[in-house]
Amino acid sequence: MKSVEELMAIKEKMKGNVVLRNEADGIRVVVGMATCGISAGARPVLNAFVEAVNDLDLAGKVTVTQTGCIGICQFEPVVEVFEEGKEKVTYVNMTAEKARRVAEEHLRDGKPVVDYTINNTSL
Amino acid sequence: MKELSLYILDITMNSVRANAQNISILIDETGDTLDLEINDDGCGMTEEQVESLSNPFFTTRTTRKVGLGVPFLKMAAEMTGGYVEITSKSEREYKDHGTRVKARFYKNHIDFTPLGDMIESVITLIQGSPEINFLFRHKKDGCTVELDTAEIRAILGDDVPLSNFEVLAWIRENLKEQYENN
Fold it and tell me: Domains in chain A, please, with CATH?
């Protein structure tokens, strides 16, 4: 059974590991989680980002958050990536697999995955 | 939607957007019925708003003019011979404001949507709103799976948010073990 002791251990571990995040320098990944997003498959996309950010050790610079309807329901799951000083990148028709690739190439290596962006999708 | 757990995630998002501090998600499976209850202490709705809920052209959102959350849930419940009941107290009129969504599903009906992965829906809610107190309780054939994020927060203190990856992983494993041991 996952015990309270293990939870305490996480707490202790985090004590010496407080990330002083400067929000302005960070990358914000925003996943649309309204009815449209959820029915199109946003739940596994969100969880794939959360997992990839941890696996790739990006927690210090990337935050994954949720939002409501972005207004382009036909392209859900939609993910927006915000970074200070750069233009917003909007990914459409996302899947968990695509999320993994975006995490590696865009969030880690700094190169947006053009194949998945709204600009590259026929409207 | 393919899973009832996705409807539950979607409906609970309404409570999150209503600025609730405390949200409970209760599932009770007995015999061939599945009863769902979602309670929140959010801003609530007026009588008029509650009445217009099953109308897809009612929404408080401004990005578009159609709200399908409640109509979807209603359709899923009614297709099995069940129902959805919503009661609410608006913060404009009540101190003990909030909303209760109750739904009944008949599991043996051919149109019943399987519950699916409830753990992932709970994790998604906590990830998005680590500051909210979520109580999740799933009773099935005398067994209970339960998670209270207020208890977890009390242990962790203020330094570690519930959206922390390792905390989410702990919660996921904890729920998995509870389901397996039942």
Answer: 20-120 (3.40.30.10)
